[in-house]
Structures are given as structure tokens and as C-alpha cells.
Specification:
Order of helices and strands: EEEHEE
Strand order of the largest sheet: 1-2-5
Largest sheet: 3 strands, antiparallel
Structural class: mainly beta
Helix content: under 10%
Number of domains: 1
Shape: globular
Length: 71
């Protein structure tokens, strides 16, 4: 894929632009990810912070504790 990429959250409150491709994208099938998303797997992308431009909305840190105690 060629950068830039634009995206946002499902509710539309956040919009962002990535100035480069992610370093990697992976798919996790662990039970914690399945429970947190309600699906069979979750996709994660790792990218450097300085390559993300926020277009609208504000970010906040959030944690989702699991029964195992892992985040």
C-alpha cells in the first residue's frame, strides 16, 4: 500500500492520517482479544508516533482489563 493512509474510529469522533506504512500489521486470535472485540480476531498495526497526524478529535489513553489481568 502506498501512504498516506487516512482512517478513524467507528463512531467518527477521531480522524487521522498516516504519513507512512505501518512497520507491521498482525492479527491476534487470543481469547482476550476475542472477548474485547466480540470477533474471532483483532488486527493491530504498529507505526511511529511522529508519522500520525490527527485530523479531528482528541485521543485518550484507555485500558481494558481482562480476567487474566493482562491489558
Amino acid at each position: 500500500m502506498a501512504a498516506p493512509h487516512e482512517g478513524g474510529c467507528a463512531c467518527g469522533a477521531l480522524r487521522y492520517r498516516l504519513s507512512s506504512d505501518p512497520m507491521f500489521v498482525h492479527c491476534c486470535h487470543c481469547r482476550d482479544c476475542q472477548r474485547q472485540t466480540g470477533t474471532a480476531f483483532v488486527l493491530n498495526a504498529l507505526i511511529e508516533t511522529d508519522r500520525i497526524e490527527m485530523l479531528s478529535g482528541e485521543t485518550k489513553a484507555d485500558t481494558m482489563p481482562t480476567d487474566s489481568g493482562r491489558p
